[in-house]
Amino acid sequence: xxxxxxxxxxxxxxxxxxxxxxxxxxxxxxxxxxxxxxxxxxxxxxxxxxxxxxxxxxxxxxxxxxxxxxxxxxxxxxxxxxxxxxxxxxxxxxxxxxxxxxxxxxxxxxxxxxxxxxxxxxxxxxxxxxxxxxxxxxxxxxxxxxxxxxxxxxxxxxxxxxxxxxxxxxxxxxxxxxxxxxxxxxxxxxxxxxxxxxxxxxxxxxxxxxxxxxxxxxxxxxxxxxxxxxxxxxxxxxxxxxxxxxxxxxxxxxxxxxxxxxxxxxxxxxxxxxxxxxxxxxxxxxxxxxxxxxxxxxxxxxxxxxxxxxxxxxxxxxxxxxxxxxxxxxxxxxxxxxxxxxxxxxxxxxxxxxxxxxxxxxxxxxxxxxxxxxxxxxxxxxxxxxxxxxxxxxxxxxxxxxxxxxxxxxxxxxxxxxxxxxxxxxx
Length: 427
What we know:
Layout: H1 9-16, E1 23-26, H2 33-41, E2 46-50, H3 54-66, E3 71-74, E4 88-94, H4 99-103, H5 129-135, H6 138-148, H7 154-163, H8 173-183, H9 197-208, H10 210-223, E5 225-235, H11 238-251, E6 271-273, H12 283-288, E7 296-302, H13 306-365, H14 367-378, E8 388-390, E9 401-403, H15 410-417
Parallel strand pairs: 1-2, 1-4, 2-3, 4-5
Antiparallel strand pairs: 5-7, 6-7, 8-9
Helix pairs in contact: 6-7, 6-9, 10-11
């Protein structure tokens, strides 16, 4: 087993510039190389380290014992780094598989060994590579081999995987590598990488959802920075490096790619780019550590005044929201008061109408009141209300004596007395 060699170590230390009294976060502890170097560079700094690999937690024990109170380890996927409390002056992410994982046969990351085809960074969760190859749908296989592995002959490789299901050839690393080499044999000429290299890489990325985890982690890592803090990311895959580049250009207020035609006013500058181009390992480092040859390092520094302005804006926003809420509550209170007054008026009118109706009902059922009204209606007329009229007899009708209604006028009575001819009548 080869020892772990941290990639681009000096370049990372230069960008992070560890200082005593500052706090740092290593999102991918691995073998602890970067963490140990930061602790050594700033003996009075503190550092939080995290890794989803259970074996990394075991490897951290010695370093934790050597630096009590200065180092804290979190057994977490870095996509969940929001679970790590605090803010930091530097955050480091070393994306991809570690040397420890490659060099342990039973982990199944390398076809150099005949081992179970696992490839999980956290062996406690998810599907193994063998399960993914046996049961994953064709779209998943194509994405893994074509997009993540960037295998130019992906169609033949995917067909070979589907055809090999149920044969046992997908269960172990050696037989799976042979299957890929048969489907996409190396071209004649100088010997290059093993034909299964790209496919193994793509399957590993798919099994561990490495690109999805990186997409979740980048904004969380940047949000953990103090003002002036540095985010440094090492990637080993072109898709990872592209994702990191786009994100850092975005927070730096720069076009994310050639097709970004947004106006500068539409961009928000939150950080300064520390690496206009990706930093690559030197030739000397590549000779010492061939696994470093594909490494790419990018970094940004959060604008020193960003958090200050953010606090000011947050305070102003909170005040504005509070003022608006107070005004809204006042308007609502006035509206409710008006409704109460209107309801009180309506209630008062309704009560008056109710009292009148109640009195009418009481009168209608009051026997004494009814008897009085009937007695008044049936009371015989007084003499002043009676008018006697004598009508001259005629041949057609005898003399008629009748009483006039008390409501008749004198003119009407005189008219009747004349037999309807307007003649004089006598009383």
